[in-house]
Design goal:
5-stranded antiparallel β-sheet; 4 domains; 15 strands; elongated; Arc Repressor Mutant, subunit A; alpha+beta; about 400 residues; Alpha-D-Glucose-1,6-Bisphosphate, Chain A, domain 4; about 20% strand
Length: about 400
């Protein structure tokens, strides 16, 4: 017995798509289409020149217009193409059934939202992506995923949280999962960085499956793509200029308010920088109390022994140096773009280079000396790889 019938269609407006009909009651049907193929045909009909990239757009003379056209794809157009082909194709509901009120209603079984960033130097882009993968192997942890999807993750949250790196030939791809949804990132055809968020269950985000919910899902999917790229840019682009480093480590006067410098190597300063990294992507910022608790823990102190006045002093230093800013009409703070770069630079250089190097002890037996030399060579190679060599 045939369980399913597939009908493959080449539509004038949507390009290739298929409709699958089930052969037994209640005769469910499935529509599968690609928004990029729809966009290509719209551009062709409007005589907008473009260069395709598989199921995407590589380049165009008028990218702003291309984006405006892409934004017009909505639930109404998708439902219309489905009804159009139902009128032309044989399917289980005869005219008498349709007259009696038996109608297909589209819902969202799977939705994929992709962001493709075409690179002017693909080889450099691939090297960048491989470094991004190495730096973000913990991106699938619950604390990271709740920032990317802006959803709270608790012990009761279903699903496995993990990061997977898969390699097909020489092309690596990064996969992270949230409940029944996932984010995938890879180097597309050696020319672009592709970030895809696939939502397999709309109830993961407390949204119904009806097709009318597509705009809300689109907002979630594209926001997740942007947040993931934000996480990666913070971890990869962490170098700051000499002038900015000098400004941060020196006293500053802003509107007749003076603040001490944030000395590199000071334990209290590094606790502040590490804490800023923890709140770098918090959508609502942070409060005085929760930031004080984190800074105290990073200094191995009881929060009760870290006075509120000391925290106020430290927040004032961070604010006057431009590393944080106050959220308007609230008692919350958020980290600035410059603050994210400085905090990442301080935390990473101290934790991964200076502290390990200073802990090496060459004195002792020949075996210890040999081990020290090996560690010294490994550290030198590491600093060369991350572009931190003298």
């Amino acid at each position: 017995m045939v369980n399913h019938y597939y009908v493959y269609i080449l539509d004038r407006d949507f390009g290739p798509l298929f409709i699958k009909f089930c052969s037994y009651f209640p005769y469910p049907a499935k529509l599968c289409l690609n928004g990029h193929e729809w966009l290509k045909r719209q551009l062709t009909q409007r005589e907008v020149p473009f260069e395709p990239l598989d199921n995407g757009i590589r380049s165009s003379d008028d990218p702003a217009r291309v984006q405006r056209i892409a934004d017009t794809l909505d639930a109404t157009k998708i439902d219309a193409v489905f009804r159009k082909w139902l009128r032309r194709l044989p399917h289980p509901f005869a005219p008498a059934h349709r007259a009696a009120g038996y109608r297909y209603q589209l819902s969202i079984l799977q939705a994929e939202f992709a962001l493709t960033q075409v690179l002017d130097r693909p080889l450099t882009g691939r090297c960048f992506f491989e470094e991004v993968i190495r730096e973000n192997l913990d991106i699938g942890r619950p604390d990271q995923m709740q920032l990317i999807f802006n959803r709270r993750v608790t012990r009761r949250t279903p699903g496995g949280f993990r990061t997977r790196v898969l390699t097909e030939g020489v092309v690596p791809s990064l996969h992270v999962q949230y409940k029944r949804s996932k984010v995938k990132q890879y180097h597309k055809e050696g020319q672009a960085l592709r970030t895809e968020t696939t939502i397999n269950d709309t109830y993961d985000f407390a949204i119904g499956r009806a097709l009318k919910n597509l705009p809300a899902l689109r907002e979630i999917g594209f926001a997740a793509n942007r947040r993931l790229l934000r996480v990666e840019s913070l971890s990869h682009d962490c170098l700051i200029g000499d002038d900015q480093l000098h400004a941060v480590t020196s006293p500053v006067v802003v509107d007749h308010q003076r603040a001490a410098g944030l000395r590199f190597g000071d334990r209290r300063t590094h606790a502040l920088m590490h804490a800023l990294c923890l709140f770098a992507l918090a959508p609502s910022g942070f409060r005085h109390r929760e930031f004080r608790d984190r800074v105290a823990q990073l200094q191995a102190r009881d929060p009760a022994t870290y006075p509120s006045g000391a925290m106020t002093y430290d927040l004032r230093r961070l604010r006057l140096h431009g590393l944080i800013e106050r959220v308007p009409h609230s008692h919350r703070y958020r980290i600035t773009a410059a603050g994210a770069r400085v905090a990442m630079f301080y935390a990473r250089l101290y934790a991964r280079a200076l502290r390990p190097a200073c802990s090496l002890q060459p004195e002792g037996s020949r075996r210890a000396q040999h081990a020290f030399n090996r560690l010294d060579a490994a550290l030198a190679q590491f600093l060369e790889e991350v572009k931190l060599a003298a």
